[in-house]
Amino acid sequence: MLLLVVLVIGAAVALALWRPWEGSAAAAPSPSSSGTAASPDASPSASAGAPATPSGTPSAAASPSPSASTMPVCSSGDVTVSAVTDRDSYSAGAEPQLSIRMENGGDTACAINVGTAAQSFTISSGTDVWWRSTDCQTEPSDQIVQLDPGQTVSSVEPLVWDRTRSSVSTCDDDRPRALAGYYNLVVSVGGIDSEPTQFRLR
After folding, report:
1. Which of 149, 169, 190, 200 has its CA 20 to 30 A from that of 122?
2. Bridge-based pairing state of the strands 119-125 and 152-154
3. In CATH, what number does 6-201 get?
4. For residue range 7-35, what is the model confidence (pLDDT) as tens digits?
5. What is the sign of the dihedral through the CA atoms of 102, 107, 109 and 111?
6. Distance between CA atoms of 194 and 191, rounded to whole angstroms?
7. What does the domain layout of the chain look like in residue ranges?
8. Backbone φ and ψ of 70, nearest 5°
9. pLDDT tens per residue across span 156-199
10. Rounded CA gap, 41 and 34, in Å?
11. Distance of alpha carbon 199 from alpha carbon 182, whole angstroms
C-alpha cells in the first residue's frame, strides 16, 4: 500500500511511504535520541507472528520532478535519513507512530527513489528483529523524485506499529505482543539507512 508524503520543493513533490496498518494522522515530530537499544525487561518470544493486512487505500500522488531522472543519484554522503518516533516512551497499549525525515546537506540537487520498493522500517530489540514494514508488503513500486540542496522533507502521516512481531510466513495469523523494554527503529529510503532511534515500551 502507499502512504502519501509531501516533498516541499517550492511546490509540493510526493514522497510515497508504505503504511501497512491504519493509524491516525500526525505531523512528523522531532526524532528521539538515537543509540543502541537495550534488551527488553523480559526477553521477547522467539516465535514469529504477522503484521495486519494493509487496510489503507492508496492516495493519488503529485508527479515527480521531470528532471529527476537526469540528476545524480543521492548518496549517504549528501543526504541524511532520520528515523522519527512521536514519543520517546509509550505507556501500555499506546502504539508507536513512525515517520521518516530526509535532508539534502549537499551543494547540488540529486535524485532518489522514494517508492515503496525502496523504503523500509525495521524495529529491533538488541539483535532481535521484531518487525519489518516489508514483511507483508504488496505491490511495491518505484518513484524517483528530486531533492534540492538544503531541503528537508518529512512524512505527512506516520506508519503505526501495533506492538507485535512480524513474519513473511504468517501474514494472516495472530502475532506475539512485544514486551516492555527498549527498542530501536531504523528506516531506509533509496538505499540510504538512518541511524537507530531508541524508544521504550512500558
Report:
1. 149
2. unpaired
3. 2.60.40.2360
4. 333 333 334 343 332 333 333 333 333 33
5. negative
6. 10
7. 6-201
8. -100, 0
9. 789 999 999 999 887 878 889 999 999 999 999 999 999 999 99
10. 19
11. 6
